[in-house]
Amino acid sequence: MRARAFCPGHITGFFEIHRVIDPLATGSRGAGMCLSLGARSDIAVSESTSQSITVRIDGKVNSAEVTKAALGRMLRNAQLNVVVKTSLDLPQSQGFGMSAAGTLSASIALAGVLGMSRRDAFEAAHIAEVECNTGLGDISAMYRGGVTVRVKPGLPPIGKVLRIDGTPEVVLAVLGKRLLTRSVLRDPVKSRSINLFGGRCVDSILAKPTLSSLMDLSRKFALDSGLASKRVQAAMAAAQEHGRASMSMLGNSVFAVGGVQQLRKTLSEFGDTLVCKVDTAGPRMF
User: Fold this and answer.
1) Which residue in 152, 189, 193, 255 is deepest, having the highest Cβ count within 10 Å?
2) What is the secondary structure of the chain as a DSSP string?
3) What is the pLDDT, as a whole number, of residue 10?
4) Are both 192 and 67 inside the same structural domain?
5) Whole domain around residue 188: which residue ranges?
6) What is the mean pLDDT of each run of 10 residues along the chain (286 residues)?
7) Which pLDDT score is estimated for 9?
8) Are 188 and 231 members of one domain?
């Protein structure tokens, strides 16, 4: 039995951490956008005398703890051999939601094979991300699609996610080494700063829920929270001449909207660039 699924990537511009006992209610308030670049997963499932999950990412066997945690939750005690082949359009640990996209694309594909619901796949992926400390709001945003504001933390319908009008082209720039999400989420000093400034940004965007407001507040959050490195700050400042730019949370990377060609040329002086669009369709089988 085989199935294939795609899941868009996701960028968070600003966020506020919320943790409670229930992992489905744990998550983040914040805002960001789903991307046309993401992850594709092919799954092959066969009968076995025991349960095994093998994951290859971009052709190489990977520990893939989040994907394995999600699929294991869906399989329960079923004695099945599951082989996952995932290809990523964007680099990992750079704020593009590749952990979530890889996990959710595999979960959606497995749900298709096993006759489970999309809801089962979303729940398994969200819980795995929360428990592995690799993300809090990506799955919730992917649930809604497009440019989003996560008004209430947790996976919908426990959480609440609004969509903002706009489907711009987005310029992405990778400026430095990977930044592990869990290293930031486990840092109490950084977490306090994130919640202080992130909460203010969420309150502000709810008063004016527009794409331009999202971009301006994202830049303010990156600077006020202290998360943006000097290189990221310099790239953001240079890009502001041709549009609006901010740091992708959480990565050594920048996302920008405005004059695409000028933005790409400017940001290419700081690192590798890519151009994509906002994805409104969400995770899907293909």
Assistant:
1) 255
2) -EEEEEEEEEEEEEEEEE--SSTTT-EEEEEEEEEEEEEEEEEEEEE-SS-EEEEEETTEE---HHHHHHHHHHHTT--EEEEEEEEESS-TTSSS-HHHHHHHHHHHHHHHHHT--HHHHHHHHHHHHHHTTS-SSHHHHHHH-SEEEEEESSSTTTSEEEEES---EEEEEE-SS---HHHHHT-HHHHHHHHHHHHHHHHHHHHS--HHHHHHHHHHHHHHTT-S-HHHHHHHHHHTTTEEEEEPBTSSEEEEEE-HHHHHHHHTTTSEEEEEEB--S-SEE-
3) 97
4) no
5) 167-277
6) 97 95 96 97 95 96 95 95 97 94 98 96 96 91 95 96 95 88 78 91 95 97 94 96 94 96 97 96 93
7) 97
8) yes
pLDDT at site 186: 76
- Same domain for 142 and 21: yes
Asked if residue 61 belongs to a domain, the reply is yes
135 lies in some domain: yes
Residues 178 and 202 reside in one and the same domain = yes
186 with 273, same domain: the answer is: yes
Residue 189's pLDDT is 85
Same domain for 115 and 12?
yes
- 89 & 27 share domain: yes
Tally the domains of the chain.
Answer: 2
Q: How far apart are CA 5 and CA 108, in angstroms?
A: 6
* Dist. CA 80–CA 63, nearest whole Å: 18
Q: Does 129 lie in the same domain as 24?
A: yes
> How much is the pLDDT for 187?
80
pLDDT of residue 111: 97
* Amino acid 282: pLDDT: 92
| 113: nearest Cα among 224, 5, 189, 34 | 5
Residue 139: give its domain's CATH number.
Answer: 3.30.230.10
Helix axes 98-114, 118-131, angle to 10 degrees: 140
Q: Confirm whether 52 is domain-assigned.
A: yes
